Amino acid sequence: MAPVIIEAAINGATSLTRNPNVPRRPQEIAREALACLAAGASIIHNHIEDVTCTGAAAADRYGEGWRDVLSARPDAIICPTLTICPDPVEAVTHLAPCAKHGAAMAPLDPGSDNLCNTGPDGLPGDMRFLYVNSFELIDNSVRALAEAGLGPSVAIYEPGFLRLVLAYKRAGRLPPGTMIKLYFGGDHDFIGSAPHGTNDPRAVGFGLPPTRKALDAYVEMLDGTGLPWAVSILGGDCGSSDVARYALERGGHLRVGLEDFGGPAQPTNLALVEQVAALCHEMGRRPASCTEARAILGLPAA
């Protein structure tokens, strides 16, 4: 089987209160990224402190964290995040300058969802977020990704997200270098300052649970598309899950990191990457080098 692309999503919205190991400042991001690359990751995804920042200002802040990474590892696949901005044109203005700073991929979130933490009664808690990606924003994102030469890193929160991105694929509008990330909803909150404290261990959550049947449904939808895909558990521990092992059996890839992890433990990004790298070897596959990952995804060589 082909080697496994491991994406390390090293910070996201995870707060220092939730996990003191999360990197925030550019120097911390660079240090974490290089450690994860050395352990077997080939894609590094990170946020900056202010995800409402747009355009060149956002890209410059990303560049501060990427400079040392790309100096040491010019083959690394770097991916910023989306900008939270109500203007669907302004929201994508950081993509082209991020490419100039060395990004090879950037996110495409083809849908909207209700996200929340879990309250003490087991119902949606006080952190409620309507995650909106309009059709106008999605159109602009696809166009901006293609113009910047960035591979789409496609977040699939719900099956409807995948149906839409496959429509772009059928229409010949999906840029090269696309990777599908199947986000399963774990048993713990992945937003908020700490795991919820209800007697029921299950979070309110979103999307499909991390089960073999759920993965089978997504793989059926992807059948015949040729699109590489990875699994991740938002609000769980992907590396210790059965769905990660099953994904490797089915030829998939893996995403881990402190952006996604949920549960009572406070691991490091490095520990999470090392965990799935060991799983890959156990399953008879090995982590892909950055050069191999670029070839699998159809990204230009560094």
What would you say the CATH architecture is?
Alpha-Beta Barrel
Provide the succession of SSEs: EHEHEHEEEHEHEHEHEHH
Low-confidence stretches: none
CATH secondary-structure class:
Alpha Beta
Radius of gyration equals: 18 Å
Query: How many angstroms separate the termini?
Result: 24 Å
Structural class: alpha/beta
Largest sheet: 8 strands, parallel
State the helicity in percent bands. Answer: 25-40%
Instruction: Give the CA-based shape.
Output: globular
User: Mean pLDDT, nearest integer?
Assistant: 95
Instruction: Tell me the count of domains.
Output: 1
CATH superfamily: Aldolase class I
- Could you name the CATH topology? TIM Barrel
Tally of alpha and pi helices: 9
Quick gist of this model?
The chain is an alpha/beta fold.
Describe the structure.
With 302 residues, the chain is of the alpha/beta class. It has a single domain, classed as Alpha-Beta Barrel (TIM Barrel). It has 9 helices and 10 strands. It has helices at 26-39, 55-72, 95-100, 135-148, 159-170, 212-222, 242-249, 269-282, 290-297, and strands at 6-9, 43-45, 77-79, 105-108, 113-118, 124-131, 151-156, 179-185, 229-234, 253-256. The strands form 2 sheets. It has an 8-stranded parallel β-sheet, with helices on both faces. A two-stranded antiparallel sheet has the order 5-6. β8 (179-185), α6 (212-222) and β9 (229-234) form a beta-alpha-beta unit. α1 (26-39) packs across α2 and α1 (26-39) runs parallel beside α8 (269-282). The two termini are 24 Å apart. The relative contact order is 0.19.
